[in-house]
Design goal:
With about 230 residues, the chain is an alpha/beta fold. Helices cover about 40% and strands about 20% of the residues. The strands form three sheets. A five-stranded parallel beta sheet has the order 2-1-3-4-5, with helices on both faces. The chain has a four-stranded antiparallel beta sheet with strand order 6-7-8-9, with helices on one face. A three-stranded antiparallel beta sheet has the order 10-12-11. Strand 11 and strand 12 form a beta hairpin. Helix 2 packs parallel to helix 3, helix 6 packs across helix 7 and helix 6 packs across helix 8. GO terms for molecular function: phosphorelay response regulator activity; transcription cis-regulatory region binding. It comes from Rubrobacter taiwanensis. One of its GO terms (cellular component) is cytosol. Keywords: DNA-binding, Phosphoprotein, Transcription, Transcription regulation, Two-component regulatory system.
């Protein structure tokens, strides 16, 4: 797998290049945001490690450009500040995960494995529920004739919902299945991404495909009734 590292701190880049190469990964690197965005668009990379604070173009803008052309590409953002606002900002920008510097290399590997593990699992090539079509090979989604652009994490969440239609799924289940995290009662990351999905797959004036079950979690219902939330 080819990993793009966009990071301007040379010692971190050298550590990542050595460590990732030792585990069989091919590494491309850029020390500024503009070059990083160009490499993500032009090279056949399969994963991106992206620093937030970069010269020439910050990580948020790099990520915005990546999502325009390759919405399915997994992106793990690196942040120097371990505060809630910084983490929320990274996720709201479309990152699939984040890691605070300094970090243990073993944790980085675990995050990379978690984000790529689902792509290696055998699965049928297409899911169709009502007028929602999900192509699992190309990782594309349509609602009727309209193409829906999703980030890698949004796609994983939608796929999980689609594989468990009309089942009530708790936040703990979703957090474990999609983020590979233990349940954190203080985290609202599931709610944030459900909101992202609703904005993209729901139609104005029609019931949401994802119903909130108060006190229990969420239910994905492609035949949602007018009374759904």
């Amino acid at each position: 797998m080819r990993i793009l590292v966009v990071e301007d701190e040379a010692p971190i880049v050298r550590m990542l290049e050595r460590g990732l190469a030792a585990h069989g990964y091919q590494v491309l690197s850029a020390d500024n945001g503009r070059d990083g965005a160009a490499l993500a668009a032009d090279e056949a990379v399969e994963f991106v490690l992206l620093d937030i604070s970069l010269p020439e173009m910050d990580g948020h803008e790099v990520l915005r450009r990546i999502r325009q052309t390759r919405p399915e590409l997994p992106v793990l953002m690196l942040t120097a500040r371990d505060d809630l606002q910084n983490k929320v900002s990274a996720l709201n920008s479309g990152a699939d995960d984040y890691l605070t510097k300094p970090f243990a290399f073993e944790e980085l590997l675990a995050r990379i494995h978690a984000l790529t593990r689902r792509a290696d699992q055998p699965r049928s090539s297409r899911l169709e529920l009502g007028d929602l079509r999900i192509d699992l090979l190309s990782r594309r989604v349509w609602r009727g004739e309209k193409r829906v652009e999703l980030s890698s994490r949004e796609f994983a969440l939608l796929e999980y919902f689609a594989r468990h239609p009309r089942q009530v799924l708790s936040r703990q289940q979703l957090l474990s299945a999609i983020w590979d995290y233990s349940f954190d009662p203080g985290s609202n990351i599931v709610d944030v991404y459900v909101r992202y999905l609703r904005r993209k797959i729901d139609r104005p004036g029609e019931p949401s495909l994802i119903t909130t079950i108060r006190g229990a979690g969420y239910r994905f219902d492609p035949a949602a009734s007018p009374g759904s939330e």
